[in-house]
Write a structure and sequence with these properties.
The protein is about 75% helix and about 0% strand. The protein is globular and about 80 Å long.
Length: about 270
């Protein structure tokens, strides 16, 4: 079994990000009067997101994915691109994003990048390129490239999820119906790549063909498991998001119908002619 390495750079980065966040929502907010106090659930979401980042890029998940198992690497990517971004966005108050994006040029860039078409294409392109054989092999053999790849995954994933969970009116959320279609379309590239990897009859990525074996998984079985992780849990995560949106949409429409019924019931009755 592998030994777990401790990566101080990851811990330092996560701690610094958390320190900046709490400084901004606390002392800086009060001094600059940036906005109202943050609801308690927002820091909880942000800290949970930092925990996902720390667990994904340090310790067993990091070491298994880097040196032993393709399947764990795919699980790591799902954590970084599907679990982490919504937590960070939900944890960040809109007024903080508004203050950070105050320069007009930066605001225009933000609107462009978070347009649903741009966001979906950008993330899908990064996903597809880095899972080609040559690009993946380069990523695994060059640690600096690997770091850049993870940063690209996280940044483009935040952009991908922004149209669905945006906390800022200037970068508005999509309506429920279009958002459901958006998540469905966004799921296709990941499920497509996962299916190709799962159905391959030979090892695609040389790095794992020569890696030490753990858990009794052959390189091909490990690859098929990694593809299935992308294909099934990855696809189901998008469908879970679609289900939540459908539930919220249905609840809103039900409340609207109830309000209309109450309004009609409160109207004075018509006077009957004698």
């Amino acid at each position: 079994m592998p030994e777990w390495d401790f990566h101080p750079s990851v811990v330092i980065g996560v701690v610094l990000l958390g320190a900046v966040y709490f400084y901004c929502i606390g002392p800086l907010r009060r001094r600059k009067d940036l906005g109202p106090p943050v609801q308690p659930w927002r820091p909880f979401c942000f800290v949970l997101g930092l925990g996902v980042m720390l667990a994904s890029l340090n310790g067993p998940i990091h070491d298994l994915s880097d040196s032993y198992l393709f399947s764990v690497h795919m699980a790591q990517h799902l954590l970084l691109t599907m679990v982490l971004p919504p937590l960070l966005i939900a944890g960040t108050p809109g007024w903080l994003i508004d203050a950070a994006a105050r320069p007009p040029g930066l605001r225009r860039l933000g609107r462009f990048l978070t347009h649903p078409v741009v966001a979906g294409v950008l993330f899908s392109a990064v996903l597809l390129v880095w899972h080609t054989v040559d690009a993946y092999d380069l990523m695994m053999r060059n640690h600096n490239v690997h770091i850049v790849t993870h940063l690209q995954f996280m940044v483009t994933a935040v952009i991908l999820w922004w149209p669905v969970v945006s906390p800022l009116p200037e970068y508005p959320r999509m309506a429920y119906g279009p958002a459901m279609l958006y998540l469905f379309l966004a799921s296709i590239p990941m499920m497509f790549v996962g299916a190709l990897i799962t159905l391959a009859d030979h090892v695609l990525y040389p790095w794992y063909a020569s890696a030490p074996r753990v858990w009794g998984l052959s390189p091909l079985d490990d690859q098929k498991l990694g593809g299935l992780i992308m294909w099934v849990p990855g696809g189901l995560y998008y469908w879970a998001g679609i289900s939540v949106l459908f539930f919220l949409w249905s609840r809103r429409e039900r409340r609207r119908d109830e309000d209309e019924e109450l309004a009609r019931a409160s109207e004075p009755g018509e006077v009957q002619a004698g």
